[in-house]
Amino acid sequence: MRAIHIATVALLLATIALWGGFVRLNPFDAPTLTPESVAVSLIMMALAAAGLGAVARNRPGLLALTAGVSFLPVGLYVLGVPSVFRAIGIANLLCLLAGLLMWRIRRQTI
């Protein structure tokens, strides 16, 4: 279970970094930043930070919830982006799976 925690933390930190890069290098926007792209990126970074808190507190249900909200619909959308930002959708999906796996392991050991 420790390996899952470490991998999930790495995925969440990568997600935060990628959203920060998305704001600066958004392939869909004009060269200037729009308030909408900044708002979506900040919300998604906040969800990833909440996921980090869930991992730190060993709350797999909360991790699955934050990852699920991150994945649907925004993570699913960026999964189709033909660039490095596709990794955001992959990371969101992997965090969702990690949360569900940790929740299942925890239920079996109780």
Number of alpha- plus pi-helical segments: 4
Calculate Rg over CA atoms: 14 Å
**Sequence stretches where pLDDT stays below 50 over 5 or more residues:** none
CATH topology-level fold name = Substrate Binding Domain Of Dnak, Chain:A, Domain 2
The CATH architecture: Up-down Bundle
The succession of helices and strands, N to C, reads: HHHH
Major pleated sheet:
none
Q: What fraction strand?
A: under 5%
Question: SS-based structural class?
Answer: mainly alpha
* Count of β-strands: 0
Level of helix content? over 70%
Task: Explain how this protein is built.
- This protein has four helices and no strands.
- With 110 residues, the protein is mainly alpha-helical.
- The chain has one domain: Substrate Binding Domain Of Dnak, Chain:A, Domain 2, CATH 1.20.1270.
- The longest helix has 24 residues.
- α1 packs antiparallel against α4.
